[in-house]
Write a structure and sequence with these properties.
About 35% of the residues lie in helices and about 20% in strands. The protein is an alpha/beta fold. It folds into 2 domains: about 200 residues, P-loop containing nucleotide triphosphate hydrolases (Rossmann fold), CATH 3.40.50; about 70 residues, no CATH class. The strands form 2 sheets. Strands 6-7-8-3-9-10 form a 6-stranded mixed sheet, sandwiched between helices. The radius of gyration is 21 Å and the shape is globular. It starts with 7 loop residues before the first helix and ends in a 21-residue tail after the last helix. About 35% of the residues are buried. Bound molecules: adenosine-5'-triphosphate and magnesium ion. Magnesium ion binds next to helix 2. The site of magnesium ion has 3 residues, from helix 2.
């Protein structure tokens, strides 16, 4: 017979942690003059759990115009996107009603303030939110220099202005500015796509290396399947417009911070995984071209012709 006396755990059960992100039946349609609204994304249903002392790294891939940025902007809470046309976007259990320092955003371009020095760019968010965060000017200065170093810029770069930096250096500054605020969720929209290949791989190395510092959920949009497979714990594939998540890949290699991206991405296990995602990507595009429904993440495979019919 079980004891009538409640154990400490049953008296005070630990509150369940709400997911970092939830979307339920979310769609977003944009108004068009003289025309019916344009449905950019639809049927978005997803959950990203709040894992203790770590965050998930999710990469989104999909054809151009399928709504990857739209999904990210819904999470960022931009007023062009919030509220969604249908459904609800929740962050840590609460509906998203606007942007917040806890959700940092890194764009492909224009991520630095041109009139501010490197160190002032990095300190920008900290100064903006410093009072609310209860941090002093000295602490802001220390944090900015710490992040300058963490993103592998030199002290000598602190006084430079963005126009004096390479594209890779500018993205390091933007990354440091986002991360200095210790966001719970970092949103990145094709952050490395304007960079040349070696710099892009270097930035991927940096992200993997900083992973232990970040302790945040990361959602990164990429046009590179290899980049997505390399960085992500989960890859979401979106269908052509109106976009929805049609496949999720979870069985992918975890990056080893001691192995450079350039080396890790030349291995056979990595190549197999990229090939699997690429094949599904192609199948989804082909289904759209043939006027069939896309396959779905639950494996229902609606509309795709059998292999022998293809
Ligand atoms: N604010 C807006 N107003 C009207 N239409 C928009 C708006 N934002 C996006 N759209 C439209 O929604 C669709 C999805 O756009 P989105 O930028 O999300 O695509 P994407 O997948 O990020 O594309 P890309 O890979 O080219 O960046 C596009 O057809 C775009 O024109
Ligand atoms: Mg985009």
């Amino acid at each position: 017979m079980s004891s009538p006396i409640a154990t400490p755990d049953s008296r005070n059960p630990r509150p369940a942690r709400p997911p970092v992100l939830e979307m339920h039946d979310v769609s977003k349609a944009f108004a068009r003059r003289g025309k019916a609204p344009f449905l950019a994304v639809t049927d978005l249903n997803l959950t990203v759990r709040d894992l203790e002392n770590t965050g998930e790294f999710i990469c989104i891939v999909g054809p151009s115009g399928c709504g990857k940025s739209t999904l990210l902007h819904l999470v960022a809470g931009f007023d062009t996107h919030i509220p969604p046309t249908t459904g609800e976007v929740r962050f840590l259990g609460k509906p998203i009603t606007g942007p917040a320092a806890s959700r940092g955003m890194l764009f492909q371009h224009y991520s630095c303030y041109p009139h501010l020095s490197v160190i002032d760019n990095i300190a920008f968010g900290l100064r903006l939110h410093g009072r609310a965060l209860g941090i002093s000017d000295d602490e802001i200065e220390d944090a900015a220099f710490r992040w300058l170093e963490l993103v592998r810029l030199r002290e000598g770069d602190a006084g430079k202005f963005p126009h004096e930096l390479s594209g890779g250096m500018r993205q390091r500054v933007a990354l440091a500015r986002c991360l200095a605020l210790k966001p719970r969720c970092l949103l990145m929209d094709e952050p490395f796509s304007a960079l040349d290949e070696p710099t892009r791989l270097e930035m991927q190395d940096l992200i993997v290396e900083l992973w232990s510092e970040i302790d945040a959920t990361v959602i990164l949009v990429s046009h590179s399947i290899a980049e997505a497979v390399y960085l992500a714990d989960r890859v979401w594939l979106m269908s052509p417009s109106p976009g929805t998540i049609v496949s999720e890949f979870t069985d992918i290699p975890t990056p080893d911070p001691t192995v450079p991206a350039m080396v890790a991405q030349s291995g056979p296990e990595f190549a197999d995984c990229v090939a699997e995602v690429s094949q599904t990507f192609y199948d989804v595009l082909r289904a759209k071209r043939d006027g069939l429904s896309p396959i779905h993440a639950d494996g229902t495979g609606k509309g795709l012709p059998a292999e022998d019919e293809a």
